Amino acid sequence: MNTEKYPQGRVVHSPEYIDGLAVDIPILKILKQDGSLYDGADMPSIDQAHAEKIYKTLAFHRVLDERMIASQRQGRLSFYMAALGEEAATVGSAAALDDEDMIMAQYREQGALIYRGFSLENFMNQMFSNERDLGKGRQMPIHYGSQDKHYMTVSSPLATQVPQAAGYAYGQKLQGNNKITICYLGEGAASEGDFHAGLNMAAVHQAPVIFFCRNNGYAISTPSTEQYAGNGIASRGVGYDIKTIRVDGNDILAVLKATQEARKYAVEESKPVLIEAMSYRLGAHSTSDDPSGYRTKEEEAKYAQHDPILRMKNWMLAQQWWTEEQDKSLFDEYREQVLAAVKVAEVIEKPAIEELITDVYDQPTPALEQQLEQLKQHIKKYPDAYPVTAGRIK
Amino acid sequence: MAKMNLLQAINNALDIAMEEDDSTLCFGEDVGHFGGVFRATSNLQEKYGKHRCFNTPLVEQGILGFANGLAAQGSRPVAEIQFADYIFPAFDQIVNESAKFRYRSGNEFNVGKLTIRTPYGGGIAGGLYHSQSPEAYFAHTPGLKIVVPRNPYQAKGLLLASIRDDNPVVFFEPKKLYRASVGEVPEDDYQIPLGKAEIVKQGTDITLLGWGAQMETLEKAAVMAEKQGVSCEIIDLRTILPWDVDTVAASVTKTGRLLINHEAPLTGGFAGEIAATIQDKCFLNLESPIARVCGLDTPFPLAHEKEYMPDELKTFEAIMASINY
Ligand SMILES: Cc1ncc(C[n+]2csc(CCOP(=O)(O)OP(=O)(O)O)c2C)c(N)n1
Questions:
Q1: Which of A113, B45, B118, B186 has its CA 20 to 30 Å from the CA of residue A43?
Q2: Residue A138 in contact with residue B301, Cβ under 8 Å?
Q3: With the C-alpha atoms ordered A95, A88, A216, A111, is the resulting torsion angle positive or negative?
Q4: Which of A140, A195, A214 would you mutate first to test chain B, the one with the most B CBs within 10 A?
């Protein structure tokens, strides 16, 4: 055993508690809501072109979320999950990465995928489960994934991506390609056993992974006060000896800065980092949820004043990198684009019936082939009962 | 009698159980003030306090481990797992712990007072992870009881029996029927015995067997078959473990034919177990092979949900194939 690493400490002769809340966890803030900077704030590396790309991503994200919620209410889309109020956390962190770093998302991180340039058509095709969906129409809306964008397909069971991210990053390290993995999760998911297993594996095996926790205050209806005791998720990182930063998740510059640092550390030291981004989920958990059952309008209104997109816009205006006219035309243009894309995607056909049995294994088993054949015969006999597929069976 | 939907019947059963026994506790993700994402636990926190009906952190293995500890201590936990698809993080606590507590300790300890409630099944456009019917995994585990109601009346009577049963029970609720299924439910306390199937309809030519949400499918298929002059006997198994072999065998002895329908994939599904047992008990009475109409051997799809489901048409076809064998 390496006794140097074995816990040492100040020697005492009567019991002394150490208190979790006594650990002083600072919170990084760079940008104020009015667009000015905190005195002495350490700026991230960012130039005008980069800032514009980030801001456009935020704007697109906001428009996409608003339009898709509206589409869901009109019954055009079955389900949606927005990231209203916390867009800066995922966009700011994604903007600090190399485009080939792996992203393992929970589900509310479409911002990272927009930043990577996943096309509007690709978003729509997934949401409408049509035959052009990269996921072949198998998962609910917002379960995106793309090999090309280095974005692991989302899985609904929470926190399963956390130990996987540790393993993925460990593999990257062995290959020596200087790429890292970022693993997003909510503060609710951080309660799962997989979270603890994943952090421990990453710490012990020194995997270059950034665990990025979006602490938005709620897991469906459960407020974070009923989710954990003690000092948030950041304190967990400390326990696993993982370098940890807490950041204002609505402050795009702070998130960018923290993630740039974290990435540098992960690559150079080949070790994990935990970032806890403090934010607030302004919208409903999903379109199946109604927050009025568990929190007040006043509470929401208070946090609405911390709008991260407005904050970045104020900064851009102050920098003279952006104008109100540009802003208006950008949002208008995005609204038109999204609406047009909905209209296209919703009428594209569903995947062919053959796709039911592909990808269960690398090749369909004889049993699957037989089941498909039986199903086809059955559908041919009763075409009216299976309108989505009947017309396409030869 | 009152008109209730399935959720209201469950809520009513929980209310009765908490009223009668101070040690009965309801907990799980979002279960507290909000009343659960489906609202099965609505108003229970207001009525019985935060110490008896509460939100847990988001950790299924924690919920079940905690529940096992409570039950071992003598409390009566009714733990909710938000979707049956998310019961697997708790699989170890259920399969290795809940199910074996009594056996491994020579009954020094047991968790018989435990009940696990969880919404299961498809038909709600939920795709892979909001549609599974995992009863067969648990049916492979001695020490558990597994119960599936098909309507509000059953939900109340079976849930009260499950909560009071001195064994750990996994209670699967057909979420497709939560609001869709409405019926007359006695307001008073009553129980439906576990381990007993119900003959829903008498018939002479073939026995149709199922549980939960698929019972509607069987009933519709039977109507179609009757038009072809086939008389169907319909049985609701209600309890998957231990299952009522005698009622099913007696019926098959009479009709000479058996069709089993479930939503879970065919291979390794519980229909296989039933078919093997009935073949053993009723070999000489069978007029045709036992038919299984089940989900495909694929994960539960989204776009092709209708195609995947063992619906009434597929069931009707299988009935006719059995009859014409
Ligand atoms: C293992 C598992 N349990 C339960 C669920 C149901 N569920 C989906 S999202 C969610 C809340 C997650 O909250 P959080 O991690 O804080 O993320 P947020 O939604 O706030 O972004 C729950 C309970 C699930 N998907 N997986």
A1: A113
A2: yes
A3: negative
A4: A140
B222-279: pLDDT as tens digits: 999 999 999 999 999 999 999 999 999 999 999 999 999 999 999 999 999 999 999 9
Place of tokens 């904050």: A311
Structure tokens belonging to residue A53: 């790309």
A340 three-state secondary structure: helix
pTM over 0.95: yes
Q: What is the dihedral of CA A376, A378, A384, A389, to 10 degrees?
A: -20
The residues with which B239 forms a beta bridge, in sequence order, are: B147
Mean pLDDT confidence for A145-170: 98
Residue A102 gets the label, from left (phi > 0), alpha (psi -120 to 50) or beta, of beta
For residue A1, what pLDDT is reported? 57
Ligand 1 atom closest to Cα of residue A219: 13
Q: How far is it, in rounded angstroms, from Cα A112 to Cα A151?
A: 9
| Alpha-carbon torsion angle B110, B114, B120, B126, nearest 10 | -110
Inter-residue long-range contacts of A327-330, CB under 8 Å, 24+ positions, other chains counted = A327/A59, A330/A56, A330/A59
Give the pocket of ligand 1 (CB within 6 Å): A 108, 156-158, 186-189, 214, 216, 218-220, 281, 285; B 29, 58, 60, 82, 86, 89
Q: How far apart are CA B88 and CA B109, in angstroms?
A: 24
Helix (H, G, I), strand (E, B) or coil at A252: helix
* Per-residue model confidence (pLDDT) at position A120: 98
Q: What's phi and psi for A104, nearest 5 deg?
A: -115, 105
Orientation of helix A324-345 relative to helix A120-127, angle to 10°? 40
Interchain proximity A140–B302, CB inside 8 Å: yes
Probe residue for ligand 1, chosen from A109, A158, A183, A184 as the CB with the greatest number of ligand atoms within 8 Å? A158
Task: Reduce the secondary structure of chain B to three states and give it as a string.
Answer: CEEEEHHHHHHHHHHHHHHHCCCEEEEECCCCCCCCCCCCCCCHHHHHCCCCEEECCCCHHHHHHHHHHHHHHCCEEEEECCCHHHCHHHHHHHHHHHCCHHHHCCCCCCCCCCEEEEEECCCCCCHHHCCCCCHHHHHCCCCCEEECCCCHHHHHHHHHHHHHCCCCEEEEEEHHHCCCCEEEECCCCCCCCCCCCEEEECCCCEEEEECCCHHHHHHHHHHHHHHCCCCEEEEECCEEECCCHHHHHHHHHHHCCEEEEEEEECCCCHHHHHHHHHHHHHHHHCCCCCEEEEECCCCCCCCCHHHHCCCHHHHHHHHHHHHCC
Buried b (16+ CB within 10 A) or exposed e, B258-274: bbbbbbbbbbebbbbbb
pLDDT exceeds 70 at position B196:
yes
Q: Is the pLDDT of residue A3 over 70?
A: no
Q: Does residue B161 have a pLDDT over 60? A: yes
Q: How far is the CA of B29 from the centre of ligand 1 (A)?
A: 9
Q: What integer pLDDT is reported at residue A22 of this predicted model? A: 82
Min Cα–Cα distance to chain B from A57, Å: 29
**How many C-beta atoms surround the C-beta of residue B103 within 10 A?**
11
Q: How far is the CA of A158 from the centre of ligand 1 (A)?
A: 6
Q: Residue A351 above 80 pLDDT?
A: yes
Establish whether the linkage from the previous residue to B242 is cis, with ω within 30° of 0: yes
Interface size between A and B, measured as CB pairs under 8 A: 134
B103-110 average pLDDT score: 98
Mean pLDDT on A21-32: 93
The neighbour count for residue A6, using CB atoms within 10 Å, is 7
Please, how many CA atoms are within 13 Å of residue B324, restricted to the half-sphere of its CB?
9
Choose among A139, A191, A353: nearest Cβ to B127. A139
ipTM above 0.90, yes or no: yes
